[in-house]
């Protein structure tokens, strides 16, 4: 065999080995300041996504005040009510996660992270200028598409930058940083929704402020590299190794030490979308589809309806927004506290424990009337929801291989978007026929089903490297 053939064969072998070598080297990374900086920067980009998502519940009273939408409707699928706005949001999210989740797998985490955010921010600006319910719902749907792509991309991004032993804590910190947007949007809504500064409805100001602030993403993207694992899986080995070397150097790992640990390679095979519906992925896809369909009732059934639920309990619009603002502080604080145990327990048991707490504090919220106790129940319910959130965002990303991580997570996550789409109508209906107690009865049933399926069929993932 000629030397040219030998060199060519060596190059092919190196290219095939690169993804597994990158995965191993990622697993060896310590918790360096540089690694945490990447997590924080990605999370800051996600703040605008959370702001945009959570403004749904906080600006809803403004729709009723301005005559655009009503709190409830006589018809189940009433497109003149707040439920329709919730449905438009999550219909867009479904379209983004189900149909466009593959974009991050094809074009890279960094590019989609940037352009999806800018896309839904632009759509939000147009939405804020609408004067009819039809225009409002259409542009909310379009904004939701970009939002859906963004959420999946950030999950895949963080999963591929952090070693398995640190991944739970990284997602808890990620959620804590992202959820700082919730008290911000709650405060702005409390302040602006009852008013009309300069003749413009307060809810419109809330939307426009978030869209304007999102322009900071152009700065953030300059400091975040592409996922080295994604680069390696797409044959861009040289770029992947440079980024990996930079991450190792920031952690104090010398090139010689990194090279000395080269392990036997396991060349990854290409997996198509259709393969997700065959073994070994079918059981995982089915499990997480059921999980996501149910969990959305617990999370968004409360998060998107806090002010409205409080109003239904006889609290004024201004007071309901004030109480919601106080409850909103639990969103960033709870996952920060959860980071202390995020990697000590299996992800599945953290999810089950959080769902149990959602049931307990949700039923308490439905029964209580005294303001201090009502706020306390709301805070604890929110804490349980955010704990479940950080755990499952990590869980459903790390169980799938790098080649299909974004599209697989997008597929299963899209079920929560379908669920949340209909939950807007279902919650509005339950609120009309059974009151606040009926809403939390629905949430209890959904969380009980989550506990059963995750406890019985959820795989163990703690401490396992990616693609194993």
CATH superfamily: MFS general substrate transporter like domains
At CATH level 3, the topology is Growth Hormone, Chain: A
- The class by helix and strand makeup works out as mainly alpha
Supply Rg: 23 Å
Order of helices and strands: HHHHHHHHHHHHHHHHHHHH
Measured distance between first and last alpha carbons: 35 Å
| Helix content percent band | over 70%
Number of helices: 20
Task: Summarize the main sheet.
Answer: none
Ranges where pLDDT stays below 50 over 5 or more residues in a row are 1-16, 259-269
Tell me the domain tally.
Answer: 1
Beta-strand fraction estimate: under 5%
CATH class: Mainly Alpha
Query: How many DSSP-defined strands?
Result: 0
Mean of pLDDT: 85
Outline type:
globular
Notable characteristics:
single chain; 468 residues; mainly alpha; Growth Hormone, Chain: A; 20 helices; globular; disordered N terminus
Describe the structure.
Helices cover 75% and strands 0% of the residues. The protein is mainly α and 468 residues long. It has one domain (12-261, 272-457): Growth Hormone, Chain: A. Helix 3 (82-100) crosses helix 20 and helix 6 crosses helix 20.
């Amino acid at each position: 065999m000629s030397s040219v053939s030998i060199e060519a064969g060596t190059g092919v072998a190196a290219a095939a080995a690169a993804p597994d070598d990158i995965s191993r080297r990622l697993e060896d990374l310590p918790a360096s300041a540089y690694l945490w900086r990447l997590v924080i920067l990605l999370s800051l980009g996600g703040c605008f996504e959370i702001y945009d998502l959570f403004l749904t519940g906080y600006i809803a009273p403004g729709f009723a005040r301005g005559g655009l939408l009503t709190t409830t409707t006589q018809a189940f699928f009433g497109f003149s009510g707040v439920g329709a706005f919730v449905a438009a949001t999550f219909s867009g999210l479904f379209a983004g996660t189900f149909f466009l989740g593959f974009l991050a797998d094809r074009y890279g985490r960094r590019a989609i992270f940037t352009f999806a955010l800018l896309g839904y921010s632009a759509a939000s600006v147009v939405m804020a200028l609408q004067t009819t319910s039809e225009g409002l719902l259409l542009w909310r749907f379009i904004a939701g598409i970009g939002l859906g792509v963004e959420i999946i991309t950030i999950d895949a991004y963080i999963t591929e930058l952090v070693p398995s032993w640190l991944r739970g804590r990284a997602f808890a910190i990620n959620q804590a940083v992202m959820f700082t947007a919730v008290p911000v949007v709650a405060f702005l809504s409390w302040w602006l929704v009852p008013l009309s500064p300069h003749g413009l409805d307060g809810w419109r100001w809330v939307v426009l402020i978030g869209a304007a602030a999102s322009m900071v993403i152009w700065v953030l993207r300059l400091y975040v590299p592409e996922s080295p694992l994604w680069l390696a899986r797409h044959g861009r080995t040289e770029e992947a190794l440079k980024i990996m070397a930079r991450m190792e150097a920031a952690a104090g790992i010398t090139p010689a030490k990194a090279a000395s640990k080269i392990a036997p390679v396991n060349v990854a095979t290409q997996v198509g979308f259709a393969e997700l519906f065959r073994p070994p992925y079918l059981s995982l896809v089915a499990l997480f589809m059921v999980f996501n369909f149910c969990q959305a009732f617990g999370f968004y059934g409360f998060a998107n309806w806090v002010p409205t639920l409080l109003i239904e309990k006889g609290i004024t619009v201004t007071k309901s927004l004030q109480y919601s603002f106080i409850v909103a502080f639990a969103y960033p604080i709870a996952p920060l506290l959860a980071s202390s145990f995020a990697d000590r327990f299996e992800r599945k048991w953290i999810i089950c424990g959080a769902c149990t707490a959602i049931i307990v504090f949700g039923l308490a919220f439905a029964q209580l009337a005294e303001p201090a106790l009502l706020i306390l129940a709301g805070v604890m319910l929110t804490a349980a929801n955010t704990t479940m959130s950080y755990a499952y965002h990590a869980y459903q990303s790390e169980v799938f291989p790098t080649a299909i991580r974004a599209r697989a997570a997008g597929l299963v996550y899209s079920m929560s978007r379908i669920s949340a789409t209909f939950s807007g109508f279902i919650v509005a209906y339950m609120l009309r026929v059974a009151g606040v107690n009926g809403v939390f009865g629905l949430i209890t049933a959904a969380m009980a089903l989550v506990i059963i399926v995750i406890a019985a069929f959820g795989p163990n993932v703690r401490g396992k490297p990616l693609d194993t």
